[in-house]
User: Which sequence fits this backbone?
């Protein structure tokens, strides 16, 4: 007999102890574990086996096998090093596998017991009687339904020849003929009339192993019919209710035979009563399992099952519930929903949610980051403006956060509980923009909706409208906007009657409106209306000291968007960002931080300089060297900015193979604005080719 020491009394060690303790060829002489509460230690005490907290004192004893069940590689190495050479050390992985196999065996046995019990429970709870015999005509199984109908207890059935219990039974004949008998009448000795079906049991090897009979007491059915003398009246009322419903309904009896459908069912599936009534529950199914049959088997309802029905394979969602009267299953009722209608409603809901998002202001002043004095001035002006009904003009370069200010001004105003509508004047064609802003009357143009349509100014009544890129409006649209500001009324496209509105207008632009007035592209009278409360939002290079706060804020935001865990940015990377001139402002900064975080390893938590993409050098601004353009000295800041902008646009234009649409998209400006700048700086394709 082999002497065994188990090191480790956890789950694996405990299982091994139980297995080995029941064998004759091995004897567990000790169990070791540092925890006295380990399950293996407690089990060893029950079996009277010595236990200890250390294995060192056991190593030189007469031990044939040591089973390492801790899973600790260091323990295994120490055991291998210090063991007697005749002692075999078995690693913990073997213990784990044995434990898992033992648990799997127990689990399979439990499942087998449950399955057997469930089968017997189901057969005992069906109302029909069932008797099973073997090929020697001896009774093997009798359910409670058979006891009740025949009037003989299960004890008198089991182990008896079937003919000695039921004299007129034909089960022996079914055994000999190997042919089933379906729905046969039989009168029992207790004068009960039953309908019975007898079926031989033949295994996969075509060997006869027995037969069974399932029978129903039709006397009980007759009694139920007599008790329901008003069944016809109830049925008529039920049919009227079902037929008047807009829901598609189908009803089957307890056997799964169709007994009723309504017009809504025919409309969805294309199947008529002749196709369903009197037919199996599977008659309407093109793809999928019959939920009627499932409910009849389980007596439990199902909801939201997707399948295809009818000749057109209509995609539907099905809800089916059992019909139970006085504890007896009478059938089931199914309700079908057209998936295409559901998808249409879902699309409408999504559109509604999109509209709601467009009508909400998402940001407040707390979302605007900037401790610098330049930003504080802009914030103070915006907070003052929010408390007045005056028109606000937000000015600043692209990417400085003008839209955030617009949101915050609305949320700080007394209109915050009403709609906030955003409109990018440069992103919508003029022909569409006019009808979107002012609405239109029925028949105003080809394709106009019947009854006309409200414009965004009407939709935003008592709320705010944010007009971004106001400098891109045509002179015609500027004239119509001027009327809104002066008269607080609009006229729909194709209409003549003015409509009074109460709307707070917030505008934004990165265009030099004063220069646009000189170039006759912007109305002077509109400029004075808009410029009542101008707020200048400084560019990032003008508030470069805000950059650390902005970076920390953007890291938190991008962590949420990308599922990262970046903590901060180091000093070298921060200084590298500070030395850049940021022509794209905060939008460009967010792009750079996002790109840096994307290419970082998942376990990195600090943004370093090498993570940041290469930044374009700013124009040389040293006092010793003057910037020159075509040999002309650039004396003012505006001259230097224009010089840089010209070179920048020229390079991007060339990189995009002189494609104006792609160039405008990369520069993040409107195509109209690009044309203006190309004309301003005299940049043309022919000149570019000469320049290159």
Assistant:
């Amino acid at each position: 007999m082999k002497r065994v020491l188990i090191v480790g009394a956890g789950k694996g060690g405990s299982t091994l102890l139980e297995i080995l303790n029941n064998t004759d060829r091995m004897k567990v002489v000790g169990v070791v574990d540092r925890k006295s509460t380990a399950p293996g230690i407690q089990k060893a005490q029950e079996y009277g086996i010595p236990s200890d907290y250390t294995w060192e004192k056991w190593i030189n004893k007469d031990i044939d096998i040591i089973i390492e069940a801790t899973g600790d590689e260091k323990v295994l190495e120490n055991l291998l090093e210090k063991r007697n050479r005749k002692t075999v050390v078995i690693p913990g992985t073997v213990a784990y596998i044995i434990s898992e196999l033992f648990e799997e065996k127990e689990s399979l046995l439990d499942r087998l017991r449950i399955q057997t019990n469930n089968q017997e429970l189901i057969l005992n709870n069906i109302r029909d009687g069932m008797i099973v015999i073997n090929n020697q005509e001896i009774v093997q199984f009798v359910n409670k339904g058979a006891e009740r109908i025949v009037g003989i207890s299960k004890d008198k059935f089991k182990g008896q020849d079937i003919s000695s219990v039921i004299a007129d039974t034909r089960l022996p004949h079914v055994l000999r003929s190997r042919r089933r008998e379906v729905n046969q009448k039989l009168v029992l000795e207790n004068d009960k009339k039953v309908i019975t079906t007898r079926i031989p049991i033949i295994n996969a090897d075509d060997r006869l192993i027995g037969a069974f009979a399932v029978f129903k007491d039709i006397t009980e059915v007759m009694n139920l019919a007599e008790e329901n003398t008003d069944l016809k009246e109830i049925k008529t009322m039920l049919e009227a209710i079902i037929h008047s419903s807009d829901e598609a309904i189908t009803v089957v009896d307890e056997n799964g035979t169709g007994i009723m459908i309504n017009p809504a069912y025919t409309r969805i599936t294309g199947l008529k009563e002749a196709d369903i009534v009197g037919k199996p529950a599977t008659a309407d199914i093109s793809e999928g399992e019959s939920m009627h049959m499932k409910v009849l088997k389980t007596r439990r309802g199902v909801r939201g099952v997707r399948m295809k029905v009818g000749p057109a394979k209509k995609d539907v969602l099905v809800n089916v519930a059992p019909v139970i009267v006085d504890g007896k299953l009478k059938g089931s009722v199914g309700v079908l929903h057209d998936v295409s209608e559901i998808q249409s409603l879902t699309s409408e809901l999504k559109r509604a949610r999109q509209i709601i998002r467009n009508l909400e202001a998402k940001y407040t002043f707390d979302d605007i980051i900037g401790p610098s004095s330049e930003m504080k001035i802009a914030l103070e002006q915006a907070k003052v403006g929010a408390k007045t009904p005056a028109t606000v003009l937000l000015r600043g370069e692209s990417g400085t956060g003008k839209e955030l200010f617009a949101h915050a001004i609305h949320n700080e105003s007394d209109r915050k509980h009403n709609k906030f509508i955003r409109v990018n004047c440069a992103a919508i064609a003029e022909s569409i923009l006019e009808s979107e802003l002012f609405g239109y009357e029925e028949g105003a143009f080809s394709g106009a909706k019947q009854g006309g349509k409200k414009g965004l100014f009407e939709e935003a009544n008592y709320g705010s409208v944010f007009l971004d890129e106001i400098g891109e409006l045509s002179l015609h649209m500027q004239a119509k906007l001027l009327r809104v500001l002066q008269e607080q009324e609009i006229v729909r496209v194709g209409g003549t009657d003015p409509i009074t509105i109460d709307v707070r207008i917030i505008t934004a632009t990165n265009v030099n409106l004063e220069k646009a007035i000189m170039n006759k592209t912007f109305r002077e009278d509109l400029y004075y209306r808009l410029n009542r409360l101008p707020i200048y939002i400084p560019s990032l290079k003008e508030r470069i000291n805000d950059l650390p706060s902005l970076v920390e804020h953007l890291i938190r935001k991008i962590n949420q968007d990308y599922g990262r865990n970046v903590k901060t940015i180091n000093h070298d990377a921060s200084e590298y960002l500070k030395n850049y001139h940021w022509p794209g402002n905060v939008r460009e900064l967010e792009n750079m931080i996002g790109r840096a975080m994307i290419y970082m390893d998942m376990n990195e938590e600090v943004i370093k300089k090498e993570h940041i993409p290469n930044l374009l050098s700013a124009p040389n601004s040293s006092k010793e060297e003057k910037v020159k353009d075509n040999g002309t000295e650039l004396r003012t800041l505006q001259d230097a900015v224009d010089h840089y902008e010209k070179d920048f646009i020229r390079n991007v234009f060339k990189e995009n193979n002189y494609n104006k649409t792609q160039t405008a998209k990369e520069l993040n400006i409107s195509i109209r604005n690009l044309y203006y700048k190309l004309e301003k700086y005299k940049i043309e394709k022919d000149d570019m080719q000469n320049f290159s």
